[in-house]
Each structure stands twice: as C-alpha cells, then as structure tokens.
Amino acid sequence: MYELNICHLYPDLLNLYGDRGNIIAIARRSQWRGIKVNISDISIGDKFDAEKYDIIFLGGGQDFEQEVIQDDVLNKKGNEIRNAIENDKIFLAICGGYQLLGNYYKTWDGKEIEFLRALDLWTIGSKKRMIGNFCFECDFLKTDSFDGRVVGFENHSGRTYLGPSVRPLGKIVKGYGNNGEDGFEGAIYKNVYCSYSHGSLLPKNPHLTDYLITLALKQKYKDFDSLEKLNDEFEELARKTMIQRIVG
Ligand code: GLN
Prior knowledge:
By secondary structure, the protein is α/β, with parallel strands linked by helices. Helices cover 30% and strands 30% of the residues. It has a single domain, classed as Rossmann fold. Helix 1 (21-31) links the parallel strand 1 (3-9) and strand 2. It is globular and about 50 Å long. The model has no long low-confidence stretch (mean pLDDT 96). Bound molecules: glutamine. Belongs to the CobB/CobQ family. GatD subfamily.
C-alpha cells in the first residue's frame, strides 16, 4: 500500500483563507485511491525533520504572522528547509509562505523582513492590495483534454519578483499574480511550487492536486506509474463556472 507523509508547517499561524484545505484535498484524493496519508503539524518550537515527509506545506499569513514566526523559521528550521529544497523535497507554499521562502520582504510601511533565501525571489509591499478571484495557465498541466487553467483567490500587498533560477508557476489570464506587472503568477524551483492563490488552491484545481500527488508517489516508489482516474465532473463544473465568471 502506498503511503504519503504530509507536513503542515506553522498550521496555527500560516493558514489564511482556509489554506489547510490544500492538505485536505491532497489527503482525500489520495485516500479515495487507497493511498494512506499521515498529516503532521509542526509549529514554533517543534523539531522539524524534513526527511520524514513527502510533501511539506506552508500556507499564507499576514505581515504580522510572518514576523511572529521569523525567528523560529530563520534560526531553527532554516537550514533544514534549505537543504530539503536543494535535495528535491516537494513543497507547496501559498502567499505569505511563498514570500517566506524568498530573500526578503519589504513591507509597504518600509520594514525589511529578512526571509529564508531558499528561493531567489523577493517581495516589495505596496499600499494598493491585489485582491480578487484570478485565473492563470500552467503549461505543465496542459494535456489534450485539459487547458491548464487554474482558478483561485488572491489578497496580498507584496509584489514578488523572481531571480533567474526560479521560473513562474503560470501565466496570468486574469488578475494580478506575482506583481501585477509582468503577467506571471507563482514560482517553481526544483520541486517547490509556490502560488498567491488562496481559497483554497487545490480543492478548486484537482489537476494540480493530482500532479503533486503523482510527483510525490513517483519520488517515493520506483514502481508507481500513474493515479487512478476519479470522477471529477462536479469539480470541473465548479472550475469552469469560476473561469466563466473571472475571465468572461
Ligand atoms: N503579508 C503578505 C502580503 O500582504 C501575505 C498575505 C497573504 O498571505 N495573504 O503580501
């Protein structure tokens, strides 16, 4: 029997707009296929051993929460996180968690918060928040029967810019994404997937959920080939309705 170990980092502090729903989506879609899932919550003061997990999740948090965890994440868990990323561990990071993996965050009121420097990206806050439902297109999800379009909800003041080693997660169809300027959303570096999409991202986008589950199972089990298909009629109707409303 296949088994996945998922870690939610700082679940009590990084969990904006129900970001935990991403873990629930990974767990349910795995369990529906007979895959066993264990979820561990690791927060401030807890020992973090990345080796134990197949997928590590960081949700969103406001500037305040990001400051609260700064000491623990930089000084206690930083090396472990950076090493895990360099060793191809799978991460999903949303909004505040995404920003945290980068170099720094300059808040809209001029505070500079040093971050993990695990991914070469940086974030500059602006007074105008970027809020709303949005839609972006991921080339790596496109198939003959799937358009690669992902829907979500964003709410951030930070504008994120990617360095040369990091590529965007997708191209904006409608909305702001990373910075409202360059037309890109999110980031990919090795097996780290980052997005500004809350709401939550994965329950609304089963293709992306299955992509991450497949990645994790392939990494863990040499004999794993592909996931059994599920009946996603309802999810597809929801996603298409959202696209219709957002894009028109
Ligand atoms: N504090 C960050 C910002 O406003 C992240 C917010 C969030 O996670 N929604 O840019």
